[in-house]
Each structure stands twice: as structure tokens, then as C-alpha cells.
Amino acid sequence: MVYFDAASAAPLHPVARQALTASLDEGWADPARLYREGRRARLLLDAAREAAAEAVGCRPDELVFTSSGTRAVHSGIAGALAGRRRVGRHLIVSAVEHSSVLHSAEVHRADGGSVTEVAVDRAGAVSPSSYAGALRPDTALACLQSANHEVGTAQPVAEVAEVCRAAGVPLLVDAAQSLGWGPVEGDWSLLAASAHKWGGPPGVGLLVVRKGVRFAPQGPVDERESGRASGFENLPAIVAAAASLRAVRARAAEEAARLRELTERIRTRVPRLVPEVEVVGAPERRLPGIVTFSCLYVDGETLLHELDRAGFSVSSGSSCTSSTLTPSHVLRAMGVLSEGNVRVSLPPGTAREDVERFLSVLPGVVAGVREKLGAPVSAGAAAARERDDVLVVDALGRRCPIPVIELAKVIGDVPVGGTVRVLADDEAARLDIPAWCEMRGQEYVGEEPADRGSAYVVRRVS
Amino acid sequence: MVYFDAASAAPLHPVARQALTASLDEGWADPARLYREGRRARLLLDAAREAAAEAVGCRPDELVFTSSGTRAVHSGIAGALAGRRRVGRHLIVSAVEHSSVLHSAEVHRADGGSVTEVAVDRAGAVSPSSYAGALRPDTALACLQSANHEVGTAQPVAEVAEVCRAAGVPLLVDAAQSLGWGPVEGDWSLLAASAHKWGGPPGVGLLVVRKGVRFAPQGPVDERESGRASGFENLPAIVAAAASLRAVRARAAEEAARLRELTERIRTRVPRLVPEVEVVGAPERRLPGIVTFSCLYVDGETLLHELDRAGFSVSSGSSCTSSTLTPSHVLRAMGVLSEGNVRVSLPPGTAREDVERFLSVLPGVVAGVREKLGAPVSAGAAAARERDDVLVVDALGRRCPIPVIELAKVIGDVPVGGTVRVLADDEAARLDIPAWCEMRGQEYVGEEPADRGSAYVVRRVS
């Protein structure tokens, strides 16, 4: 198998493995204890904290280890909001944050707080001016990822941090996807990260709270990790996490250049090799190892399955690959096509040959899926000319990508200037029909309520 | 070094180590993913859940893995309280619970809930009737440990569960100290445990919520672990935890009998070898591997330090070994002596010779500490006969065990029937002076406010 899903999880880095094994022997005891084994564990913990702090660019006493990146985000947001409760209860997040940030925002909203979601452009990036516009006198905290986990787009963190700093509002940066590549620039206030994204073991996150930032840990606390992360420290994993962060950083510049070249090749080749493809995410300001594209008239689950059969492990933001049958919130916020979505995220060390083989396999796989889906005209999705020469496509009860396939089949029958109404009740259609119009140069008129689902109206302009 | 602090943490079990190493290769991927590595990770996770559920005696879908035992307790209590919020906001805990339970209770109280702390007897055990007495119409949840982590006393969980069940109140059992020895008996509703107590790696806890128990997870949740434990699953550690639970259980009966004999030997020998010692905790209904005793006129920190020098790692509930300079809440609740406290907790496999060597070293170590502390009469702690023939010992500004040492020095000068007032401002004196009276057959009259600290009044009766 060729594993192209490093943004989900990476196999343990050899250095991490070595450190883990060694500290299972040396670091199993309670670092709070006074006897020899405890003191040895304490030394290991202190050394790991110093190494991690150096990699982040903070003081060791500003950094605590949590049980996961998700936990670091949850604790960081809750503690920062509580620390500034007197200022107000307004929270700013971008629309493309990791679910851990958005779940924290939901909890805050349910608890009576207010939340502003900052929109992104079609490449998935926020602008510093939208953060500036979202700031209010009662803003307690702003959150922004360093780079997006689904499309790789880097965010203007330093600029947003400056805007927030000027307003006296702390900025929490979710650096999960980027910390292995380098420190987060700019004058941020809090930072969260996750070790298993940089080849460390699972079960370790980082939470950094800069000195001077008001912070009130929420929920039950104990004396561990400065009262910011309770429970027995997962020491062997912490030591391994710090060791692998140091190891990946040592080769980050070289490896970033190499992976960037490989993802650049995918970015340019895929649209030439596969018809009807949209590569999404920022072309320049982006992570080195992630490239994401969506294929019209393809369902993501079948595509993933066929790629898996062909020996490639990738992930997808398509609705059919999620348990809730809704497309990825990131693709939705960007307004790009979600059907047939593929995220390729290369682990460090990815061989060029594997990328070439992926490029040689992909066109046939996509064509095969399209053939399976598109060849027979479905009986249930009949097109009928109705009142005022409006063509109606009934795709009710059909899942992504069928509504778009049916639309594409009939658009040629619509006179230029005429419209077609697509009836659909699949959540993905709301995103994918406008995205299809954008890709094919047709006009998306809008969505209208219908007896069942919605009617999506499209005008043929070319 | 001989490590006698298994109740804090145990070195990784060889089976856990093997499982951990293997699943670092096989189980690093995201079990939520559809590709091969993800499916393999899912299989490992499912198998670990089944093994753990079998050991607990529950259904696999009732059990989730958390990032620590502490986390399992925090989430379990918060979720159970929220699930029964309509019934009321009253929580019952015993006075000798683990700090994770008491911290949860503090948070609940701070949030407007009410908490009843059930008292324990001098052996550290609760009685089912005190739980029955604490139950109210608005009781949302009761918590009880299966066995105490400091003195080893087993609690009457099955009986308390029955009392709670009859009142329709769920019982959460903190089984951290006992789960390696066997399943928790009785009709409990929720259970929390911690893998590194049974030789598993740190970073893994268990939370079991029986079907039918109302439970509303608090804080941000995601789709992992049935929405009850968020963040990427720590799969290699989970696999190792389940494997070691199975391994220790396979030898639990045999090993329990062996360790019980060793701790029984410490229980009987220590009072014969060391003068002025109180062995605390239940003599019969107790964990196999834990024995705790307190030595009069000894400070815990020096004792631990000297035992460490002699090659033994133990822990202590004495005030001087805690960061807050207060004695262990467990010893306080039991009303037993806290000075010179030593907890010996034997890991499975402890050799008899190590226990014998401990018994041969201990008397000299205690005598040495006592000599250092007790030989010179402190200038600051002068005894003076004052009004109405009351002897006053001024131990203000002196830390445990000095107040008790000074009391012991003058008691011979007090006529039988007369009293002595000990002035002290060390928190431990409040516990240790009554405990000393109990041990020495003198009458503790009570505590009175003083200009500084308190005056503890003792009447000589023999």
C-alpha cells in the first residue's frame, strides 16, 4: 500500500519509536514522586518540554502537554474564553477550522456565548481585514489555523495576529498541520498542536499559553502540567513526541522542497490527465505535502474504494464518505465542488515513483467510476419540459453525484438563456450544483423551496 | 532500586510492551478511515474494546477508551450529572475518593450543585447505611471507589450499589486500584479505570456506562468513542492496555495470594520492629498489594529520602511530602496519624527477599530520623507552666512532626488529670495531635482559637 493520508495520521517516526522504547524503561514512574524513578521521569519530562518549547519558539513554562491535539484546542479555547469573560463572550473562528475548534465554538454558543465565523475565499484563505471586521469590544478570543488540514492552504497568521494584538484580543493558533514544518510566525497568544501529525505517537498534544495571556483552566484540574492538563503524564509518548519534532524539523526545509515539487506535479498533471476536475486550495501559500481535487460525476466513496484496491490510501471530503452524509465544511465554506473529492497528503519520504504511479492509475479509476454511474439513464431522474419552457430534472432521493450528472446530461437540451430546475434532497447538491456552474461557465440562479428537497435553478449561458 | 509504589504507576507489563510495539506497526492509522490501514486500525480497536469489556464484565458498546483514568472519572461524573439534571444536582462521594473524583465534586459545587461527602471509619471504609442516609430525592449520582489508593481498604461496592439502585440513583465506581485484580462486583452503573495501574501504558483510561444509564457528555465532543471521548484514539496504547489487563488477570488469583502474604507480613512485623507505629487501613477487606503505616515523631519527607537512599521507592501521605503542605485527605478522613506516613504498594512479581530487606532496613531508618529530629530540645518550643497549672507547648512556626514530638516530651510532666496546650500553626497538627492521643491512650479535649494558629488541648489520663 502507498499511504497518502499523512494529514490524518503518520506512521511513527523512527526517532520517535526509539525514544518511546527507551523511555518505557526510563520514564514510566510518576514525575511528581521524590524517589529515584520519579526524579528520572521528571528529568525526562523537563527535557521534552524544553525541546518542544524550542521548536515552538516559546518558554518552557508556557507549554504543557495534553492528551491530544483535540484536547489542547478544547482546553485552550475554554481557558482563554473564561480568562477574558469580563471583557465579553464573543469568539471569532474561521469557517474552515478543524472540527475541534468548531465543536468548541458550538459549546460556547450553546452556553450563551456568541460566535462569528469568518468566511474564506475560494482558495480557503481568510483575509486579515475580515478578522479586523469581526472584532468587537466584547471579543474574548479569536482562533485561526496555521494551515488548512483538508486543502493545505496556509493562513495569514502573522497578519491576523497583528490585527488582534492591536485590538487587545488574544489569537489562538491551531498549528496541528504546520508545526512539523516550522514555528508559527507572528505575535500569537495561544497555540495548539498534535504530535501524531509530525510522526510522534498518538496521545500527545501541545498547548502553549504566552505569559501575560489571561487564562482560567476549565473543568476539574489537578497539580499536573501547571493545572492545565490533568491526569498522569503520558511520559514515554511525550518524550517520543518531542524527539520526533526535533528530528522532522532538522530535515524540514529539504523535505518541504521535495514534497512541494511532488504536490505541484499532482496539481498540474491531474487536470490534464482527468477531465472535469477542479484542483482546490491555494496554489502558492500552502503546505508542502497536501493537494486536493474534486472530480465531477464521481462519488467519493467509490473513488476511495477503487483507489484503495489500486493500492493507494487517500481521504475525501465528499458527503458520501462522512457519517453524516454532509460534505466537508471546508469545501462548503470555499464554495468548491465536493463530489469526487480526493485529498492526497504525502508523508515525509514519499517516493517520486509512488506519485507517478498514482498519476498513472487515477485517470482509469475515475473513468471507471464515471462509467458505472453515468452510463444508464436512471428511470427516477427523468427530465420533463414544464411550464414556461423550464426543464425539470427530478433527482429526489438520489445521492451525490447523481443530481449533478443528471444536470450535465440535460444542459445541452436547454436553449441558451433558458433555465433548468434540478429537484434534489441530497445535502451535497446545495454545494455541488453552484460549483458545477462555476466550473462549466453556466449561471447559477439560486435555490427555491420545493415540495420535497429544493429546486436548484441553473441558466444556460453558453 | 526496589520499587514499592505500584499504586502510583507500574512499569510496563512485558505483554503490554509487546502489544505496544506490534501495534505501532499495525495500528497507527485513523480507525475512522476506509482504506486498508484504517480498517486494520479499526479491527485492533474493536478487539481491544472486546477484551477490555470482557475483563470489566460489560458489553463492548458500553465501554469507551479515554486518555487517562482521571479523564474517565471527570467525563463520567460530568456526563452522569448532566444526564440526570432534571432529577436534581446532588452528588454523593466518599471522603476518601481519588482526587480526580473530589476535583469533579469541587467543580460541581462551584457550579451551584450540592455535594455530600460520606465519612469513613478509622479503617477507611464507608458503610452502605451512610450512603443510604446521604441519598436524597434530588441525588443525581453517587460515587465510590472500589478500593482506596492510599491505604488499600476495599469498599462495600456491591452493597452500596444495591442501596443506590433501590433509590434509582446511578453509582459510579472508580475501579482504578482494583480492576487488575478482578471485575467489580455488584450492580453499579458507571465505572472508570486507568491502564497504567495494571501495567498498561499511561495515556489510557476506561469509561463504562451501562445501557439505560442517562448520560450526556459534556464539553466539545466529536464522533470518536461514541461521542464520549474526543480526539484521535491512542490506538497502540489502547491495544497494549487491553493486552496487559488480560495478562495480569490470568495470574491475578495466584499473585494476589502471594502479595497478600507479603503485605500481611509487613502489617504484622512493622509494629514489632518499629516503636510508635500505627498501621492504617482495613486488615482483612483490602487490596493484596498495599500496606500503609505512620511513624510517630518522624517527618515523611526525610523518611522517604532515607528509604530512597537505602534503595526503596515508596510514597507518603504526610503533609511535608505534598506541595500544599497539608496531610493526605484520606488519612485525615480516617482520623489516623499522618506524620511519618509510608505507603508500600508492591508490584506483581515482588520478591519476598526485597520485602525482608525492607523490614530489616526500616527500623534503623526510622530511628535515625527520630534521633535527628528529637534529640535536641528546640529553643523555640519551650514549655511553660501558666495559669491554673496548664502546661503550654509553643510549637508555632514548627512543621510536622515537631509539635507532636514536643507534646510527647512534656506529657510526663503533666499530672494525671491535668492538661497541656499545644500551640501550633502547622495544618498537620490538627490531625496528628488527636491521632497521637488515640494511639497513646490520652484524652484529646479539643482545639481552641489562639492569637496565632490553634491551641490543641490534651488531658493526661494515664
UniProtKB/TrEMBL annotation, chains A, B:
Record keywords, A-Z: Iron, Iron-sulfur, Metal-binding, Pyridoxal phosphate, Transferase
The protein's name in its UniProt record: Cysteine desulfurase/sulfurtransferase TusA family protein
Record-linked Gene3D superfamilies: Aspartate Aminotransferase, domain 1 (3.90.1150.10), TusA-like domain (3.30.110.40), Type I PLP-dependent aspartate aminotransferase-like (Major domain) (3.40.640.10)
Residue span(s) of domain UPF0033: 393-417
Entry similarity comment: Belongs to the class-V pyridoxal-phosphate-dependent aminotransferase family. NifS/IscS subfamily.
Species of provenance: Streptomyces prasinosporus
Keyword Transferase among record annotations: yes
Cofactors named for this entry: pyridoxal 5'-phosphate
Reactions mediated catalytically: (sulfur carrier)-H + L-cysteine = (sulfur carrier)-SH + L-alanine
Keyword Cell inner membrane: no
InterPro entries linked to this entry: Aminotrans_V_dom (IPR000192), Cysteine_dSase (IPR016454), PyrdxlP-dep_Trfase (IPR015424), PyrdxlP-dep_Trfase_major (IPR015421), PyrdxlP-dep_Trfase_small (IPR015422), TusA-like (IPR001455), TusA-like_sf (IPR036868)
